[in-house]
Design a protein that fits this description.
There is one protein chain. The chain contains 1 helix and 26 strands. With 390 residues, it is mainly β. The chain has a domain of 128 residues: Neuraminidase, CATH 2.120.10.10. The strands form 7 sheets. Strands 1-26-25-24 form a 4-stranded antiparallel β-sheet, with no helix packed on it. Strands 2-3-4-5 form a 4-stranded antiparallel β-sheet, with no helix packed on it. A hairpin with a 4-residue loop joins strand 24 and strand 25.
């Protein structure tokens, strides 16, 4: 055989060997469907539609918790085409967030509070969880009066008296115009592993005494992740999870208040969100209000892990929303989620605290969800799809 032909034969053998070995190599794990929102790390997404910002009404804003060489921060993204695309318009960087930032939220004031006009954007997060054994985690608030382009520090709602955490802040404004911050509080341990607390403010700067919204014995029971929405009939709907109840892993519940300030007996569990067959979400739920149903309003409820009543994964796990057309009463039914997360599990990345928002006059739903990218980084993805039941 000529020397050149021998070289060709060797090359062909090498190519064939590589082709035969390729299927034996591990394929990249599937990630969430949808488009990448942010190039860097991203988790704990939030979506809002501006309704009180005059010229900017109708725009959609998204925030996430991210990290770069300068520390933790929240990039702010905007969509002007009903969630088809997003571009970054601002960012929030608290100086203390170099020592950790968790679970940031985004909110638009529906009415004036103190000197803050309607349409003011509020951002809050738990700050300082990585500061070591002597950490004192704070819930800090920043505000924007130019649709998220620039941000200024406003106030500190609360700070831990010990190393235990204060997590997952969310805002609401009650029927009398008082601003509330709702959050999960671990600082009463060991008597209570975690409680849902709230604080009130008439100006966004000065905050009242901590009040207990939910506080359950025995010690391991942990209510958390409160979110409040004002219903069209003037009542207020609070969604939250309760972890460590017997035979249940972090199920989703709700309560309704007539005024948004009073939430009844702190030891009342409320009502669990579930289908007629008992399917429910475990961990890290969020909610949104959408047009539809007999009352004109549909409650959308999404969580991390969709399970059967016995806690095993249900069909559609990682790609499901639950909906209700009667302010939480009666049956909940399944709606296909637009972003599919292939392997949600009890972890702070995949499908953890995904956010949904109705778009195109309620015909579709937009979702932002987190999942691991091929390089192992937790990132956020967005997509939208039809808002109809399965």
């Amino acid at each position: 055989m000529p020397r050149s032909a021998a070289r060709v034969g060797i090359l062909l053998c090498a190519v064939l060997a590589a082709a035969l070995l390729a299927p034996l190599q591990a394929a990249p794990a599937p990630r969430a469907t949808g488009e990448l929102l942010h190039e860097g790390p991203g988790k704990y997404p939030r979506l809002i539609r501006l309704e009180n910002s005059t010229y900017a009404n109708g725009r959609i804003l998204a925030s996430i918790t991210s990290q770069d060489e300068n520390g933790w921060y929240s990039p702010i993204y905007q969509s002007t085409d009903e969630g088809d695309s997003f571009r970054q318009v601002g960012e929030v960087r608290d100086p203390e967030a170099k020592s950790g930032q968790c679970c940031a939220t985004l909110y638009e004031l529906p009415r004036q509070v103190g000197d803050l006009p309607a349409g003011t954007l509020l951002w809050a997060a738990s700050i300082g969880q990585d500061a070591g054994d002597n950490r004192r985690i704070a819930i800090k608030v920043w505000y924007s009066t130019n649709v998220g382009r620039s941000w200024s520090f406003l106030s500190e709602v609360d700070r831990s008296p010990n190393r235990n955490g204060k997590w997952e802040p969310e805002f609401s404004v009650d029927a009398n115009g008082t601003l509330w911050t709702h959050y999960a509080d671990e600082t009463e341990a060991p008597k209570y592993s975690q409680v849902v607390a709230r604080k009130a403010s008439t100006d966004g700067v000065n905050w009242g005494e901590k009040q207990a919204t939910m506080r359950f014995p025995p010690d391991p029971v942990r209510p958390g992740m409160p979110i409040v929405r004002r219903l069209p009939d003037g009542r207020y709907y609070m969604s939250y999870e309760i972890c460590n109840l017997p035979n249940e892993a972090c199920g989703s519940y709700f309560k309704i208040s007539t005024d948004g300030a009073n939430w009844g007996d702190p030891q009342n569990h409320g009502t669990r969100v579930q289908t007629p067959g008992g399917r429910y979400f475990q961990h890290a739920h969020t909610i949104a209000l959408a047009p539809g149903g007999e009352n004109g309003t549909r409650i959308l409820h999404i969580g991390q892990i969709y399970t059967e009543n016995n806690g095993t994964a249900a069909p559609g796990n990682g790609q499901m929303i639950l909906a209700n057309d009667n302010y939480g009463s009666g049956p909940w039914y399944e709606v296909q989620a637009p972003v599919h997360v292939p392997n949600p599990r009890n972890h702070t990345c995949p499908n953890f605290s995904s956010s949904v928002l109705p778009v195109n006059d309620g015909a579709q739903v937009l979702e932002v969800a987190a999942d691991f990218a091929e390089d192992g980084t937790c990132k956020t993805y967005f997509g939208k799809g039809p808002l109809k039941s399965n």
